[in-house]
């Protein structure tokens, strides 16, 4: 199966326009396939409260992790998640919504095809991880997946 990194990134970028601030497509083993993040200066349109006190509080909190550490933590959480668990996780990073995306079964060549087959490890699904703030409604995250 071939994936276009550009198309994956564009799709994830559309997901983070409003609602979640980070979207990640990963293998179940913790390898990043694609990721997108809303730029720090952009504000989520779903929360239109212009209360100055709230803005000052948000600035004081700030991200407690730099981007590379945040992505590693998201990958670690996603790789430990199983499909029989709830897709909703609330943690220090905010709200996470994880969805398994099943892939088509692997094509097998006939045994007598005469072509040597080099088998890469089969990946049966990808994980889509959406990360929003603690104020992002669960319904917004669920609608995005």
Automatic annotation (TrEMBL):
Acidic residues: which segments have biased composition? 42-66
Positions of the UniProt region annotated as Disordered: 22-69
Tell me the domain of life: Eukaryota
Query: What is the protein's given name?
Result: Uncharacterized protein
Q: Which organism is it from?
A: Kockovaella imperatae
């Amino acid at each position: 199966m071939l994936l276009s990194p550009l198309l994956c990134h564009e799709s994830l970028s559309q997901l983070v326009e409003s609602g979640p601030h980070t979207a990640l497509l990963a293998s179940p083993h913790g390898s990043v396939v694609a990721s997108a993040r809303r730029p720090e200066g952009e504000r989520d349109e779903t929360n239109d409260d212009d209360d100055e006190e709230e803005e000052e509080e948000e600035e004081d909190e700030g991200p407690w992790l730099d981007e590379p550490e945040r992505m590693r933590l998201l990958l670690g959480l996603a790789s430990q998640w199983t499909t029989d668990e709830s897709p909703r996780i609330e943690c220090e990073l905010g709200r996470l919504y994880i969805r398994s995306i099943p892939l088509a079964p692997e094509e097998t060549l006939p045994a007598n095809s005469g072509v040597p087959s080099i088998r890469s490890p089969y990946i049966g699904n990808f994980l889509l991880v959406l990360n929003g703030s603690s104020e992002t409604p669960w319904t917004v995250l669920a609608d995005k997946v």
